[in-house]
């Protein structure tokens, strides 16, 4: 049905053929102009939208990478790493401390190796950790046992196992257990010295040196909050080189619990694996945290070294 004119609309005389043609050409031209204007408007709006999206992604990318777990994996739990080293520029932290030639880091970075400690040794030392930690344990998700000081998490506090259990501690730990710790400590020290080009005899074991056990139980005190980003040199003072020996496997024994270096450009993670040693210079060039453990139990030992002989400690021993 043809369109009806509205009543009351002004009646205009129909244009002649030539005029109609001219008008139709001019209508076509203005329609083309309008269409081209519209498409330009669309292109400009689209470009604006894309620019906004790119800008938003660009601005939130570092945040996403640092906080939301988008990360580069430095060592997967399924692979066997011979020796892997990643150099990073040293922070200025070391300038604020006394320098010890032949030990204070001149080169900074992080290393990983799965070849220094065997799976069997890792299992053995994990049993020592299990036995020790079974004497107490935190109410929250993080328990520690410091073999040197004897500090053991117990409920919401700590006890000293050497005092608390007296001589009966010899029924729990053997001289062989301590020998294994010393042996591991020595090999880790040599590996760190070799990697950073320093002399092994100019670095010393420092405190704390401890077993850690983490699970997904809710934190009850701040001692259970192991996941906060930190710098070991700030947290522990005496550390110059930190090492971690992992005693259980990521994804097999526990979920979550990856170790994360929080670099400016991206997070870099290390997936724990029994027998894996991760070591690094302890300054703020190696800001790090541990992801929350989501299930299972994660065991590790922290063994750290100082360049300052005043902060050195003896190897833990039974006597
Ligand atoms: O267990 C780990 O992977 C790291 C623990 C840690 O950062 C620390 O003890 O300072
Ligand atoms: Fe740390």
From TrEMBL:
InterPro entries: OGFOD3 (IPR039210), Oxoglu/Fe-dep_dioxygenase_dom (IPR005123), Pro_4_hyd_alph (IPR006620), Pro_4_hyd_alph_FE2OG_OXY (IPR044862). Its cofactor is L-ascorbate. One of its GO terms (cellular component) is membrane. The keyword Transmembrane helix applies. It holds the Pfam family 2OG-FeII_Oxy_3. Coiled coil: none annotated. The chain crosses the membrane at residues 40-64. It comes from the Eukaryota. This is 2-oxoglutarate and iron-dependent oxygenase domain-containing protein 3. The gene is OGFOD3.
């Amino acid at each position: 049905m043809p369109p009806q004119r509205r009543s009351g609309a002004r009646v205009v005389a129909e244009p002649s053929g030539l005029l109609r043609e001219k008008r139709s050409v001019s209508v076509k031209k203005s329609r083309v102009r309008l269409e081209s204007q519209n498409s330009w408007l669309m292109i400009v709006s689209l470009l604006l939208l894309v620019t906004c999206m790119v800008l938003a992604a660009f601005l939130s990318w570092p945040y996403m990478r640092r906080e939301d777990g988008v990360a580069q994996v430095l060592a997967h739990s399924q692979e066997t790493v011979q020796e892997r080293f990643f150099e990073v520029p040293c922070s200025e932290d070391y300038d604020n401390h006394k320098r010890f030639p032949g030990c204070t880091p001149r080169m900074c970075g992080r290393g990983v190796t799965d070849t220094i400690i065997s799976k069997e040794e890792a299992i053995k030392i994990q049993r020592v950790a299990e036995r020790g930690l079974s004497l107490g344990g935190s109410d929250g998700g993080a328990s520690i046992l410091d073999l040197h000081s004897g500090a053991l998490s117990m409920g919401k506090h700590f006890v000293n196992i050497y005092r608390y259990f007296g001589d009966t501690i010899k029924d729990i730990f053997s001289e062989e257990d301590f020998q294994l710790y010393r042996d591991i400590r020595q090999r880790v020290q040599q590996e760190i010295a070799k990697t950073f080009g320093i002399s092994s005899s100019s670095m010393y074991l420092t405190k704390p040196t401890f077993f850690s056990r983490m699970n997904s139980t809710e934190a009850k005190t701040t001692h259970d909050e192991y996941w906060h980003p930190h710098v070991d040199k700030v947290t522990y003072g005496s550390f110059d080189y930190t090492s971690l020996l992992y005693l259980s496997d990521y994804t097999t024994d526990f979920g979550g619990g990856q170790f994360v270096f929080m670099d400016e450009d991206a997070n870099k993670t290390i997936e724990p694996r029994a027998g894996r040693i991760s070591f690094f210079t302890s300054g703020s060039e190696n800001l790090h945290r541990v992801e929350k453990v989501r299930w299972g139990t994660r065991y590790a030992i922290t063994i750290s070294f100082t360049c300052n002989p005043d902060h050195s400690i003896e190897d833990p021993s039974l006597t």
